[in-house]
Write a structure and sequence with these properties.
Order of helices and strands: EHHEHEHEHEEEHEEEHHHHEHEEEH
Structural class: alpha/beta
Number of helices: 12
CATH topology of the largest domain: Aspartate Aminotransferase, domain 2
Helix content: 25-40%
Strand content: 15-25%
Distance between the termini: 25 Å
CATH architecture of the largest domain: 3-Layer(aba) Sandwich
Oligomer: single chain
Length: 358
């Protein structure tokens, strides 16, 4: 029997290499072997987008992608400064909750979940008020929209405002231009485009920006504490050793397979096959595919099929899909082509979709 194929936006179906890495020997996080493992991961993460280690640092955390986003926001906003948070989905709204919880002053640029972020609105707000950063989501998995950062980055650069980027669902699967887009940091996780397991997260941060953002607003999620320790080969708190083993192996596999550009091409090929199949079945996409990421797409449920019915039918065929969120919870289903998925799996999925939706 074929194992269940995960088509949700993380965790993903693992390769045998990554799964086997979870069974490596027990290791104390205070031993030099762990230091070597951690440093190996940090260097590989910087190499994905060719970042200079003298300017940028990868900071490792044990936690989910949200932990990385919270660490980024709590650690990078200078005391008594204000940030602008862009919301066009659940994960932009989550950043506002994080800022509120840490007592960080913030304003919100709100866009409808079906709309792209409007550059002229961003420009107008930045003209009216001073901010240290704009915080936004690159790939908003609420809808599958890939927010276009080039124009937004130029606007922020004109106003001398840096970007804090939630790259949780895009890192390793989409292009990220750290310098060109005016980023100070990008938060991400192991268990999405990199094909690791949940439990290891990280922030790629500009060293100078982090140094200027003291004092800390949190203990466990303070990136400055992690960076100072990790640069010395240490860790301030217990890390999830097995998750680090798995991420290190996943990164080796990722690099061997051609890096982010090849993973992008693989995801795009799989997603286009899925989209074409669903289009032939009369299923509409929630937003235009030109505006979507290769990592996930949202599709409108047909009138006579509930999400739970579709989910259970596909699960019985060996596939796990994902529900919509918020106001779309009863209107859409979402599919992500990440993970260890073969062409045979995709062909089986096409048959399962046709059976469930005909």
């Amino acid at each position: 029997m074929n194992p269940l194929i995960l088509l949700n936006p993380g965790p993903v179906s693992l390769s045998k290499r990554v799964r086997d890495a979870l069974a490596k020997e027990d290791l104390c996080h205070r031993e030099p072997e762990f230091s070597s493992l951690q440093e190996s991961i940090r260097k590989k993460l910087l190499s994905i987008y060719n970042l200079d280690a003298t300017t940028w640092a990868s900071v490792m955390l044990t936690g989910s992608g949200t932990a990385a986003v919270e660490a980024m926001i709590a650690s990078l906003v200078p005391e008594n400064q204000r940030i602008l948070i862009v919301e066009n989905g659940v994960y932009g709204e989550r950043m506002s909750k994080i800022a509120h919880a840490h007592g960080i002053k913030y304003d919100v640029l709100n866009s409808d979940w079906l709309d792209a972020i409007e550059g002229d609105k961003l420009e107008k707000i930045l003209e009216q008020k001073q901010f240290s950063h704009v915080a936004l989501v690159h790939h908003e998995t609420t809808t599958g929209r890939l927010n276009k950062l080039e124009q937004l980055g130029k606007i922020c650069q004109r106003h001398k405002v840096r970007i804090l980027l939630d790259g949780v669902s895009s890192f390793g699967g989409e292009n990220i231009e750290f310098e060109k887009w005016n980023l100070d940091a990008c938060a991400a996780t192991a268990n999405k485009c990199l094909h690791g397991v949940p439990g290891a997260a990280f922030v790629l941060v500009n060293r100078a920006a982090l140094a200027a953002a003291r004092p800390p607003k949190t203990v466990y999620l303070d990136l400055s504490t992690y960076l100072s320790k990790q640069d010395c080969g240490e860790t301030p708190f217990t890390q999830s050793v097995q998750c680090f083993y798995a991420l290190n192996e996943a990164l080796d596999e990722f690099i061997e397979h051609g890096g982010w550009s090849q993973r992008n091409a693989t995801f795009q090929h799989r997603m286009n096959t899925i989209r074409d199949c669903l289009s032939e079945l009369g299923i509409e996409e929630l937003i235009d595919r030109e505006e979507s990421s290769c990592v996930l797409a949202s599709f409108k449920l047909p009138s006579k099929k509930t999400y739970l019915e579709l989910h259970d039918e596909l699960k019985s065929s060996g596939f796990i899909i994902y529900a919509g969120q918020g106001k779309f919870s009863s209107e859409v289903f979402r599919i992500s082509p990440m993970g260890n998925i073969s062409e045979a799996d995709i062909n089986r999925l096409m048959c399962a979709l046709k059976s469930a939706l005909t």
